[in-house]
Amino acid sequence: MRKMVLSILVDNTSGVLSRVSGLFSRRGYNITSLTVGETENPKVSRMTVVVRGEEQILEQIYKQVEKLEDVVEITHLLPEDSVCRELVLVKVKAAREQRQQVISVADIFRAKIVDVARESLMIELTGNQAKIDAFIKLLDGFEILSFVRTGLTGLTRGSGDIADYIED
């Protein structure tokens, strides 16, 4: 199975997320990760969708998404032609005597301590999926109270502009 990351520009209208995700669910495709946000043009939103499957299934997904009425542009984000990142917030149990150890691990990854409580630290880290996974693995010796990952988001490298796709 192969992973495919799609960057989908869509009209920023109500129900568009439901229509795009509905295409996946109706056909029995699982979305591994989904992030959505408004672009610099308030008429357009960008969805970053990560899916896994066999080559034929992935081609079919791409073609079916491309046909949706709300889709302005779809781009397959290839690792060599794009930058993809993810954000994670991790709350780690850390009594006073453990804090320096947790902070040292965070420093290795250039993570930020964003909240300090009596018995815990909250850490924010942004990076590619491998970096996030390595960070979580290094925290294995500590008690992780909770964590959340945003899901992958990305853009193609270069000077492409959504203005190329949008009519006023």
Question: How would you sum up this structure, described in words?
Answer:
The chain is an alpha+beta fold and 168 residues long. It is 26% helix and 41% strand. The protein has 4 helices and 9 strands, in the order E-H-E-E-H-E-E-H-E-E-H-E-E. The strands form 2 sheets. Strands 5, 6, 7, 8 and 9 form a 5-stranded antiparallel sheet that branches. A 4-stranded antiparallel sheet has the order 2-3-1-4, covered by helices on one side. The longest helix has 13 residues. The chain is elongated and about 55 Å long.
State Rg: 19 Å
Which band does the percent of strand residues land in? Answer: 35-45%
Could you state the order of secondary-structure elements as H and E? EHEEHEEHEEHEE
Spans of at least 5 consecutive residues whose pLDDT stays below 50 are none
Q: What separation lies between the terminal Cα atoms?
A: 41 Å
- Helical content stands at 25-40%
Number of helices: 4
Structural class: alpha+beta
Q: Mind summarizing the main beta sheet? A: 5 strands, antiparallel
Query: How many β-strands, per DSSP?
Result: 9
